[in-house]
Amino acid sequence: MNIKTVFRALRHKNYRLFFAGQSISLIGTWMQQIAVSWLVYRMTNSVFLLGLVGFFSQISTFLLAPLAGVIADRHHRHRLLLITQSLAMLQAIILYILYVTHAISVWHILLLSLFLGAVNAFDIPVRQSFTVDMINDRDDLSNAIALNSSMVNAARLIGPSIGGILIALFGEGTCFLVNALSYIAVLYSLLSMKLPRWERSMRQKEPVILQLKEGFAYAFNFIPIRTILMLLSVISLVSGGVQALMPVFARDIFHGGPRTLGLLVAASGLGALAGAIYLAGRKNVLGLSKVIAFTAGLFGLGVFVFSRTSLLMIGLPILLFSGFGMMVQMASSNIILQTIVEEDKRGRVMSFYTMSFMGLSPFGSLFSGVMAARMGADNTLLAGGLLCIIAAVIYAFQLPRLRSFIRPVYIKKGIIAGPIQ
Length: 421
Description:
- The protein is mostly helical.
- It has a single domain (about 10-190, about 205-410), classed as Growth Hormone, Chain: A.
- Helix content is about 80%, strand content about 0%.
- Helix 4 packs antiparallel against helix 7, helix 9 packs antiparallel against helix 12 and helix 11 runs antiparallel to helix 15.
- The longest helix has about 30 residues, at about 15-45.
């Protein structure tokens, strides 16, 4: 694998600034996420409340993402990101103050999780759409998307590992403080960018509801987009449950503490990082439809096998494979969607991607919390793994039909001149 190929999007200065700032900020984000999960479980010993916090943290994303997509297509994405990142920083500061003053309770965490979810509902589709604004050469777009995934998962590997240690040594509040400070890096990187003058579109005068309907019609009438989003939704539901139940596996099945939780999340993150690097090393989008089918099945198989083990040393490598499968499936979906989408609908399609990727995850968290309380965390993940495998098989049978729709788009955009491999 050529190292220049893997990191070719970094030759664009604006993207290089973004990559550096986000890399630092996301480490803090993952530290806070693991700290919140551990704090809730330590305070309540309730898998249901653990799932409820996960639900609150992302339900706003599901509800508000379509509106955020319209806004991303109508307004200055750079300015929107400055606002969303500042609000996320404010959430971390409030969480830290409540913790150090010993005033924090579960309802505080629920409300702040709901607030952060609302911020992310706008931040994620805007950030995804903003990628194309930072890349001068569109041939580097797929690489930039893959590097975004590698950035997230490098942070997912580093953040929980550091977070687990800091929780054990100093308590959860330290993670909240570090996360708040980490936003300084991303705000600085955004302010340092030099971007072309943004021009208002005449379509800004159109009613928001009209553009919202147009986005839904476009996404769900174009079979490749609809099918990719449906598979992504299944993976997201199950992965949300896996994430919500990790503290249960760490404490009750593997008989560990916050460091064990950090190892579990980091193992999945390491596999996901490997998957993102694999995608960054690819030269083009050809063949990604097959990759999506295979890696969705790999994720399901990993979750299925993980649910049956009670040994940490066996569970960790299994999470490597499931993390690889989840990330490659999700990032490949992102790459194909951003490649085939019409430019004036990019924000709205990426908002539907956000709904599928992030917005459905809280339902997985909540449902898994309820089911785990009734049938156990292990059996809940067993059912989730089987569901993913079935969804991957159904998607695989539709590949010939999907290629017949995608091929004309690739030819029109000059991506291919012959049949898709």
